[in-house]
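Problem 12. The chain below contains 373 residues. Write out its predicted structure in token notation.
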Amino acid sequence: MLRSLHISSFKCFQQLDLELRPLTLLTGVNGGGKSSVIQSLVLLAQTLSEREWGRTLLLEGPELALGSAADVLNQNARDRFFFGVATTDEHLQWVFKAADRRALSMELDGLQRDGQDVPIIDPVRWLLPAAQAEGSSVVATLRRLSWITAERTGPRELLPLRDEQGHQHVGARGELAAGLLHWRKDENVREALCVADTPPTLLHQLKARMQEFFPRCDLRVVPIEGASAVSLQLKSDHRSDFQRPQNVGFGLTQLFPILVGLLAAKDGDVLVIENPEVHLHPKAQQDIGTLLAKVAASGVQVIVETHADHVLNGVRLAAKTKAIKHDDVAVHFFGNSDGTFAPTSPKLNSDGKLDSWPEGFFDQFDQALAELL
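Solution.
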């Protein structure tokens, strides 16, 4: 599990040290730095996946494309930034340098392991000297990270179908979720997440979870003959016929890849999810918060960016009902009131209460109510 993240001279951050827990919530104002936190992890994971061998951090990749070095260097930085990632038993810090600010990748220029400088000796594998790469818990964990962006694929008649190895994750935009379900529908879901009185396989458990959010809905994945594609067919009522996704509510297609990703994840995986509340009504937003907490408690690390107090309340309820240990939850609020982009981190207790409520932290309802009254 990832325990902490250090960022220096990257985008809005001159320096940031962030604690990570089994469930980490990133909240706050627009432009406060939440996405930059996520992008630092995704850049590392993307590079480890796309460039196993080599010394460069990929800035323009198939899932995350941030542009040139000039686009990602902090305004006060000259030519380099630092990423540090720690697990329970290892801390790695990488230094990446831009020889040319127009470059779409950055060169590995320095490396520390547990506070000690490490010579960067070729061959370099997974951004470490090859002899050390296999034994790195940080690298192993980052390689198990998957990301679901807020810009998820909307209703589509056809979705890609790759070979089974090409559907290890649901894809950054959820575009691979239907194909993953096609290949893994008969695999068992982790016991701690199984809905009672329902077969433990992914397909049955997914349907049961979808019906918790959308009662009476159903789904099926149909491979298209003669094409590397599948069709996701949905219905919102058991009395209706299966329909094309564009003829059902947006909420179903937005939630579908998140639920597939959560239920299909294995112990030790890391899921990064942006705005799971998109197109969900308040009760469903609260319920997805509770489910995220249960997934985190089951052995999958979950890092969530959210703008919804209902998602936070779902997590708080999970702590109160002991669905997750309260100290397994970290909440970071990025307010940027002083221009430093340093977050405030309220602590959650065993009753689901927070020890502080910073200004701007999900308080808009109270402010509006005060004006109305």
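Discussion. Residues 153-265 form one domain. Students who got a different answer should revisit the alignment rule from Section 12.3.
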